[in-house]
Amino acid sequence: MKMLSIFVDGAVSGTKHAGAAAIARTQKGYFVGWMSRQYSTMTNNEAEYQAVLLGLKLAKRLGADRVEIISDSEVVVRQMRGDSRVLSPRLKRPHQETCRRASEFSTVLFRHVPRELNELADALAAEAQAGQIVQMRPLHSRWLQKLGV
Fold this sequence. Notes:
Blueprint: E1 3-12, E2 17-26, E3 31-40, H1 44-61, E4 66-71, H2 74-81, H3 89-102, E5 107-112, H4 119-129, H5 141-146
């Protein structure tokens, strides 16, 4: 598989749970997979990192070798690009894990988008936070080839 764009988002709102979601899209615009997870209480930035980790897991399952992570978290994008240092002790471990998993791909790019351009991942993360977990069964490789992936 060539390149996949993975839209990711984390959700936290003072409850006892957090949510994370990832949605995979081909360069031609086809949605080929999505996943969400519910987590214990954590900070918003921790949830955003969990979403990136979920996105990298999804990309691996779909056989991608190049990935573009698209997030509305400026903190995570800047830290993963190396534009900002990770100062928070709570973010050091998820940052290191994300770097390790990203190294499994030939290319991983990080792009920041405004929240309104990440509404689908945002909605899926909010549902995960509330306990509604979804996972699309990966498409058969024959279908992925037809989609030009």
